[in-house]
Amino acid sequence: MSAIKIQNLEKTFGIRTIFKNVSFELKRGERLALIGANGAGKTTLIKCLIGEEDYTDGAVIIPYGETIGYLKQDVTSTWLGPTCMIRKRACEKRKKPCR
After folding, report:
1. How many CA atoms lie within 13 A of 99 on its CB side?
2. CA torsion sign, 84 to 89 to 94 to 97?
3. How far is the C-alpha of 48 from the C-alpha of 22, rounded, in Å?
4. Which of 23, 62, 63, 90 is the most buried (most CB within 10 A)?
5. What is the pLDDT of residues 22-50, one digit of tens each?
């Protein structure tokens, strides 16, 4: 059974089509990585999937209780603070230098 289903997703900005006819299914536990040139629409697609941006046509079907994990590409230093501290403590416990 699919956890997330994308059907014929389309996104346009004015007359410019960013992507069209994007369809795929992800089962629970599967992961997705988007690879492409700058400006190809990778971030826009993810924003459409997580509801941060509207899409022009198609459907994003996410069953109740399922979630999408997403790490923004413009992470701020405020966000990194606690994460770095957790990582530092983990490295100290292992008695190995952090990289």
Report:
1. 1
2. positive
3. 12
4. 62
5. 999 988 888 888 899 998 999 899 899 88
